[in-house]
C-alpha cells in the first residue's frame, strides 16, 4: 500500500517536471502605508489584502485573462485578472491590465509580481472610485497555502519516514 502511494507521488512529481513550462504561483500579501502619486483621491483601502493562485504557461503571453487566476481571499472590491508577457519576468494582477502594464481608471487595482517563488508583488497601486491614485510603500507577505503537488510530496515523505521507522523498530 505504501509502495503504491509512493509510486503515485513520484509519478505526480514527474508529471510536474515534464510540464515544466506550466507553473503555479501562490501569493498572499498585505499592502499598507499608502502615498498619493496623482490627483486628490479619496482614501485607499488600508490595509489591502490579496491571496491568490495562478497557473499559467510561462512561454505564452496572457492579456486580461481571468481563467488562470483563482482569488482565494481579498478585500479589493474591484474585479481584476491576470496578464503576463512571455519572457519579461513579471506578471500583472490588475483591473485594467495588459501585457507589461496596467491602467489607472477610477475604481481600479494593479500589482506587479516578478519573484514567482514568493508570489509577492514589488509594486501595488489603487485608484478609488473618485479617481486619482495611491501607491503602497509597504508590501508584506502573508501565509501561502502550498499547491497540491507540494502537499503530495510532503505527505509521501511523511508516510515513507513512518514506514522506515516501523521497519527498524525492535520487536517488543
What key attributes describe this structure?
172 residues; alpha+beta; nine-stranded antiparallel sheet; two-stranded antiparallel sheet; 11 strands; 43% strand; elongated
Describe this structure in words.
The chain has 172 residues and is α+β, with helices and mostly antiparallel strands. It has a domain of 120 residues. It contains two helices and eleven strands. A nine-stranded antiparallel sheet has the order 3-5-6-9-10-11-1-2-4, with no helix packed on it. Strands 7-8 form a two-stranded antiparallel sheet. A hairpin with a 4-residue loop joins β9 and β10. α1 packs antiparallel against α2.
* DSSP helical segment count: 2
Number-wise, the strands total: 11
Q: Approximately what portion of the residues adopt beta-strand conformation?
A: 35-45%
Mean pLDDT: 83
Based on CA atoms alone, the radius of gyration comes out at 21 Å
Indicate the overall shape.
elongated
Largest sheet: 9 strands, antiparallel
Q: What's the SSE blueprint?
A:
Blueprint: H1 2-18, E1 22-38, E2 48-57, E3 62-65, E4 69-74, E5 81-84, E6 91-94, E7 97-98, E8 101-102, E9 108-115, E10 120-127, E11 133-141, H2 148-168
Antiparallel strand pairs: 1-2, 1-11, 2-4, 3-5, 5-6, 6-9, 7-8, 9-10, 10-11
Brief overview:
With 172 residues, the chain is an alpha+beta fold. The chain has helices at residues 2-18, 148-168; strands at residues 22-38, 48-57, 62-65, 69-74, 81-84, 91-94, 97-98, 101-102, 108-115, 120-127, 133-141.
